[in-house]
Amino acid sequence: MQSMLRGGLLSLLLLVVTNGYTTSTSIMSSSSQSIPEQPTSAVHPRDESSDVLQRWSKRWEGSDTPGWHLKDAHFMLLRYFPQLMEELKPSTTTTTCSDETSKSVRVLVPLCGKSVDLVYLAKHDAVSEVVGVDGIQKAIDIFMDENPDLYNKDEVLAQSSGKKNYFAKYEGKNIAMLKGDFFDLDQDAVDGSLFDVVWDRASMVAIKPEKREEYVKVLSQMIKPGGVIILCALDRRSGTEEAMAYGPPFSLPEEEILRLFEHQDWVESITKMEEHDEAITTPDAFKRWKDMGLTNLFEMLFV
């Protein structure tokens, strides 16, 4: 397995899924897997008082804009997504009878909140649909309110998504929001279709470290053979023991990423694209981390 990983606190990880990957029917493409009939019973996503969702519900209670929210699309997404779309184009584009290329890339954004990354992706020329997953209703409602060009909220009705009824689905223009616990996500909940790209800006660093293997398992069931996972990670590289263990966001160093993904038979390669030390690049923003006891914090991007 090719690995081009180096050190870093904030990193972007690009994981390429092997084209030869085959497994159970849950990984089959939509062309070979029938879409289950939608249930008629009421939708019942995981309650926000559950162990997984409770802390996030509390954080949304006090603010319409939590501290982790960025007002603009993430700079690493803006920098690398167009490049990756060019590389994926031969396998993801379709042509009409007039030989005009139509967009066909499907993107999954786990634990999306009200991220403006969703807006950027939904409006990208190469993207046919972006699907965001979040467990907090307030986050989804605010996103729809703040983006009337994607959602006419007066016309949006929650639909049951998946035969287990674990998700409420809100469809907009080139976008769908799934309200439910990400760990309940399966093929039924996404209409039996796999994704070309997963954009993880602050998802894996948000979950408790003991849930990471389960998170990776869900991803393995969502990504197409030949697809790409773009992972933005934080590495609390030095500081007090307490500060380095604190979270969320939890530290996700390079060696942990390799431990989680390198042995997977569905991962073809792991490439570190970029890293930077926030103590140097954003010293004003780093002050709060320094006050916690960190001496540096790296952001990294892996593909």
Percent range for helical residues? Answer: 25-40%
Strand residues, percent: 25-35%
Radius of gyration: 19 Å
The count of helical stretches stands at 9
Output the helix-strand order.
Answer: EEHHEEEHEHEEEEHEHHEHHE
Query: Tally of extended strands?
Result: 13
Termini, distance in Å? Answer: 14 Å
Largest sheet: 11 strands, mixed
How would you sum up the global shape?
A: globular
Give the overall pLDDT as a whole number. Answer: 81
Contiguous runs where pLDDT drops below 50 for at least 5 residues: 1-11, 20-41, 95-101
Q: What class do helices, strands and sheet pairing give?
A: alpha/beta
Notes on the protein architecture:
The structure is a single chain. By secondary structure, the chain is an alpha/beta fold. It is 26% helix and 28% strand. It has helices spanning 54-61, 75-92, 117-122, 137-146, 212-220, 241-245, 254-261, 278-281, 283-292, and strands spanning 2-4, 10-17, 94-95, 101-102, 105-109, 127-134, 159-161, 167-171, 175-179, 195-200, 223-239, 267-277, 294-302. Strands 1, 2, 5, 6, 7, 8, 9, 10, 11, 12 and 13 form an 11-stranded mixed sheet that branches. The chain has a two-stranded antiparallel sheet with strand order 3-4. The model is unreliable at 1-11, 20-41 and 95-101 (pLDDT under 50).
